[in-house]
Design goal:
Blueprint: H1 7-20, E1 25-30, E2 33-40, E3 45-52, H2 59-73, H3 79-91, H4 98-117, H5 121-144, H6 146-168, H7 177-184, H8 191-202, H9 206-237, H10 239-252, E4 255-263, E5 277-285, E6 293-294, E7 297-298, H11 315-329, H12 338-359, H13 364-386, H14 390-408, H15 418-445
Antiparallel strand pairs: 1-2, 2-3, 4-5, 6-7
Helix pairs in contact: 2-3, 4-5, 4-7, 4-11, 4-14, 5-6, 5-7, 6-7, 6-9, 8-9, 8-15, 9-15, 11-12, 11-14, 12-13, 12-14, 13-14, 13-15, 14-15
Keywords: Membrane, Transmembrane, Transmembrane helix
InterPro entries: ThrE-like_N (IPR010619), ThrE/Ser_Exporter (IPR051361)
Family: Belongs to the ThrE exporter (TC 2.A.79) family.
Amino acid sequence: MSFGAPSHRIESQLVAAARIIEVEAEFIHLPGVIICSYGDQELGCSETHFVKCGGRLSLGSLHKVHLIYRSVVHDEISAKDAAEKLDALLLAPPPYAVLFRCFLAFCLSALICPLAFGGSFVDMWIAGIAAFILAYLQLSVAEKSALYANVFEITISILVSFTARGLSSIRSQMFCYTAISSAGIIGILPGYLILSSSLELASKNIVCGSVKMVYALIYTLFLGFGLQIGNDLYLLFDPTMRRRLDELAAKLSTTVSLTGIWLADNGTADDVGVPLNGTWTFTHTILPKQQDIHDGCYRPARFPWYLQPFPFWTTFLIVPLFSTLSSLANLQPLKSKQLPVMVIISCCSYASNKIANHYIFNRSDVVSAIGAFTVGLLGNAYSRKMGGTAFTSMVTGVLLLVPSGLSQAGGITANGNGIDIGGAMIAVTIGITVGLFMSQALVYTFGSRKNAAVFSF
């Protein structure tokens, strides 16, 4: 729980461990709490313990915990030695310093800006700076001040949105509001939280799943609300920009229709069954791309290269780099055998997502399900055949599907409505959940039964 394990697996792992070390125990898992009851059920005397804990995702530590757990259930080490190792792991400091983690947040937002939200070379630096400030406030200020921690997400989303709208209103139109505001807050999107709640519900753990899902949705609405406030706050100071935006919206939604009447010059048309008179209507709709709007950003051909969307070939460089940095940001040690596996699975996830999106239009849930199925198939097969940890090897690939899915749903700030953001988020995560469960069922249908509980999504 301290290292962010998938909560729908914790109960089954505890039951499996208790069975192996021959301890009579029952477990109930609630959000942030595990109730453990030890004792002889026949005599009716039992001892109950409440374990309260919370933490953030730490891939390196999770992998070590799973190795200790697997060693115990396979009778390789004693429970006492395992308990000492777990204590040492809980007391160990994070593998990276705060400033380095802020730098990783800067890199991740800068890379996801052109990759998922159509940002330019100029936009990516602004999004990165916003993410650096966000990560510093999250890791330093919010952890020390309980009062600020309650309003942290709203204040940072207002600040990012206000700055992005201010920069996008510069007359040269160098900056793109959608790309900067979407990429700037990628570090506080509750993608993993919604995913774990969706997995809980799918595995019939209704109490945990419902509580987490409602919290994640309200949290997403807070973010959407903050972005909208930041946007409107700037437009309050700059009414000229508000008029320009209204004109642009009217221009983009305009359809030109011409209607007229025609009459035949003579009656010969009657021989071939064509009427002598009638009306005609000509309708012409200008597509956003014809007006130089790409992914919600104004990108005319006359703009220089650094204001244009990135060419397709850059994806082959950005995706592996983003996957590596994303793994490090989730506290995966740099010198580990798992890291290359994570990057490969993540690249396969993005590739299958892109291919599916090419053939299936406007269905971010179906596209995400295909990407998640690929991740699940590779991660569970790696765990089954090569003895790795399925969950930690899959996390990076699954987390990459969340911004990719949101970009297919039109970006985070496309509609400027928190409820729409929440709906897009749920559509993406339900697709991911279905894909993960299907892949796991496929892999674990074949082969011998495991005596340890499955540590996977």
